[in-house]
Hints:
The structure holds 2 protein chains of 2 kinds. Chain A is α+β, with helices and mostly antiparallel strands. Chain A has helices at residues 2-16, 26-46, 48-75, 77-90, 98-102, 108-120, 133-142, 258-267, 299-305, and strands at 126-128, 151-153, 172-173, 187-188, 200-207, 213-219, 223-229, 233-240, 249-253, 272-289, 306-308, 311-321, 326-341, 344-350, 356-361, 366-369, 382-396, 399-407, 410-432, 439-443, 452-465, 470-481, 491-507. In chain A, a hairpin with an 8-residue loop joins strand 8 and strand 9 (249-253). By secondary structure, chain B is mainly α. Chain B has 2 domains: 6-97, RNA polymerase sigma factor, region 2, helix turn helix motif (Rna Polymerase Sigma Factor, Chain: A); 101-194, Winged helix-like DNA-binding domain superfamily/Winged helix DNA-binding domain (Arc Repressor Mutant, subunit A, Orthogonal Bundle). Classes of the chains: A alpha+beta, B mainly alpha.
Amino acid sequence: xxxxxxxxxxxxxxxxxxxxxxxxxxxxxxxxxxxxxxxxxxxxxxxxxxxxxxxxxxxxxxxxxxxxxxxxxxxxxxxxxxxxxxxxxxxxxxxxxxxxxxxxxxxxxxxxxxxxxxxxxxxxxxxxxxxxxxxxxxxxxxxxxxxxxxxxxxxxxxxxxxxxxxxxxxxxxxxxxxxxxxxxxxxxxxxxxxxxxxxxxxxxxxxxxxxxxxxxxxxxxxxxxxxxxxxxxxxxxxxxxxxxxxxxxxxxxxxxxxxxxxxxxxxxxxxxxxxxxxxxxxxxxxxxxxxxxxxxxxxxxxxxxxxxxxxxxxxxxxxxxxxxxxxxxxxxxxxxxxxxxxxxxxxxxxxxxxxxxxxxxxxxxxxxxxxxxxxxxxxxxxxxxxxxxxxxxxxxxxxxxxxxxxxxxxxxxxxxxxxxxxxxxxxxxxxxxxxxxxxxxxxxxxxxxxxxxxxxxxxxxxxxxxxxxxxxxxxxxxxxxxxxxxxxxxxxxxxxxxxxxxxxxxxx
Amino acid sequence: xxxxxxxxxxxxxxxxxxxxxxxxxxxxxxxxxxxxxxxxxxxxxxxxxxxxxxxxxxxxxxxxxxxxxxxxxxxxxxxxxxxxxxxxxxxxxxxxxxxxxxxxxxxxxxxxxxxxxxxxxxxxxxxxxxxxxxxxxxxxxxxxxxxxxxxxxxxxxxxxxxxxxxxxxxxxxxxxxxxxxxxxxxxxxxxxxxx
Lengths: 508, 195
């Protein structure tokens, strides 16, 4: 019986061992599709980390943009005034600020009349006073008597009240205050006293480079008043849109006040820029034999067996303009460098604690792994490492000086600097052979790797200015290690890289 | 053509390298070259042609994925074959819960076969059908033992069964095959005498 069964075995082996069958033609098509799909998945996986980084960068930039936008809005006179107007409406009969003081309902025709009269007049000064204490504080801080006789505008404590004061140029002014919505307005040189309600809306305030506040005030959409304000002077010019009238102006000394403070704060022009960037890099290393190391290995082996693979750096930089063309730049940069090591046989050696493990040598140092299928090796035992990747992550604090000049929408720049780099993580990942199913082992400590190294950098860049405050930046940058990343290992390694940085730059 | 000649080895190396680099034309070429032999292997491990094609497909995808692991140390065909077998085993293990175990005790007593010449009259296709007709577990054990040369200890580890079960399954598989061969021979003889 057993022999017969054995014959069966031989029969089948003999007959079917070298048998050949033709699969259906669509089998390859299915394989082809799967390979395409896998390729896409593989690319997706490969770029998952990249996507995360980009997402983080976009998130960071969005946050900065929102912050910047908010700041801008806070300083935007339109917003300030609208806020003030709202506030003014809430506080009846109590004008607590400039806008509520000047933003009042008025009659369009009267306003036009007023403007015409202003256009014909030679107004030198006028003084506005507010009906109650708060508004008086605000307005008086905004407009004040000068040394000439000026028209003084006063209003009653509660409701409509008109006060006119003749200047030495026979200037009369009037002001009408009717509760929260009435206007306290300009004194105007006219034979007849003008008593009108004027609707004044502050449309826009700009601050120019000479630390003056420029404000456009619109009167019933018919005319625009331009106010130029310095710390001690307010000059108002009327520019009539609807009618081609002359531009009367008056100057009022200003005293310290809330408005002035706001103005002074706003007058300061920002010199700061922030750049978020991502830089794919080509990495390579300079290596030198280090005879002080007591481990095996040499530069030639390391150079032959290692290849730089996809590496990248991302981060954010703050740039401070020190002059028209020069600026200083600093920030943070997180760099990840990957180097692949060719398949090789690795041998078991005792580590620092005396435990025998398999040692993997790299150009940055060496690490130990202990695969689960061979967790008790003897010294000299070997396993085959199919592929090994050495990954290093550093946090760099670059400090650089930059020269730039602008041509139209483009800004060209050149930079150079240094960067101290602090080790965040160093690991060696190895796929070791275990029958058909290989095992992936990671050495999370690289012996010989220094915690800190210094590198220099130089590069050129091109910015494209989308808007006044936003530009895209492309900067090829060469980084070269000034000190080695390791010590007391057979090979001293100086990592270099050529990065192609892409970023967005915001003016703060 | 000697597959071990330097020229062929170099060509194969180049083909493999191109496949590693993702060259689809080379992958197709490699598939065309090895698919017939590998499909025959897959047929032995499956109950029908469709299942064999599924294994072949998964096996070749696995081959292309792990081609960079091939060290050019041994036979490339052997390496592919090994991959196919492991794919078949993985496929079996994934479906093993659905398999029904046949009760061999209920089967008829087997006839004694002692004439291989007669057996040899049976076609390869018929023999293959017999293997495919085996219960999945028996088929796996039989294939791994007879064609791959694995020991019962290794088969047990691969299939997640005990060594004793492996031995028992192999015995049962051979009994079933023997009976099938006898039956086929009877039919063949009848046809021969009738014809």
